Structure formats: structure tokens, C-alpha cells
């Protein structure tokens, strides 16, 4: 059995596997109004979100959200 690896695959070993502040994905999303991770309640380096009506996520999480009234 043989395995063919495209020449461009070599470049992938130098690319970070997560979104970091200031990285190209971070800049592209935040320039368009998206929020990216870097929250105090969870560490999710791949998560981006855009809420309706221009709302922004509280960096401390959902501490004001009551889950007992469900």
C-alpha cells in the first residue's frame, strides 16, 4: 500500500490548532461583529457567536440565568 501526501500538507504542521486572540480567524470574525471565546466561565478556543440585535455575551457567563424555573 502506498500513501500520497500532497506537498501543501507539509505547511499544515506549522499552523496552530486553535483560535487565539489576534490570529487570522479571530480578526476575521471580530471585524464582522462576532464574539470569540476568551470568557471567564469556560475555555472554548473554537467558539464564536453572534447574537441577535447586537447583544454581546457576558464574559463572566450565564451567572444571571436561572435554570430552576424550567
Structure commentary:
The structure is a single chain. With 70 residues, the chain is mainly alpha-helical. The protein has a domain at 16-51. It has two helices and two strands; from the N terminus they run ααββ. It has a two-stranded antiparallel ribbon with strand order 1-2. The longest helix has 7 residues, at 24-30. The radius of gyration is 18 Å and the shape is elongated. The mean pLDDT is 71.
Keywords:
single chain; 70 residues; mainly alpha; two-stranded antiparallel ribbon; elongated
Q: How much strand content do the residues show?
A: 5-15%
Q: For the CA atoms, what is the radius of gyration?
A: 18 Å
State the shape: elongated
Order of helices and strands: HHEE
Q: Give the helix/strand class.
A: mainly alpha
The number of helical segments is 2
Mean pLDDT across all amino acids:
71
Number of strands: 2
Strand order of the largest sheet: 1-2
Low-confidence stretches: none
Major sheet characteristics? 2 strands, antiparallel
> How helix-rich are the residues, as a percent range?
10-25%
Through-space gap between termini? 56 Å
In summary, what is this structure?
With 70 residues, this protein is mainly α. The chain is 16% helix and 6% strand.
Could you outline the blueprint of secondary structure elements for this entry?
Layout: H1 9-12, H2 24-30, E1 35-36, E2 48-49
Amino acid at each position: 500500500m502506498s500513501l500520497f501526501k500532497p506537498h501543501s500538507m507539509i505547511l499544515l504542521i506549522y499552523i496552530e490548532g486553535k483560535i487565539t486572540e489576534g490570529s487570522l480567524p479571530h480578526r476575521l470574525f471580530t471585524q464582522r461583529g462576532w464574539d470569540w471565546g476568551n470568557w471567564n466561565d469556560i475555555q472554548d478556543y473554537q467558539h464564536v457567536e453572534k447574537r441577535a440585535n447586537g447583544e454581546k455575551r457576558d464574559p463572566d457567563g450565564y451567572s444571571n440565568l436561572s435554570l430552576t424555573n424550567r
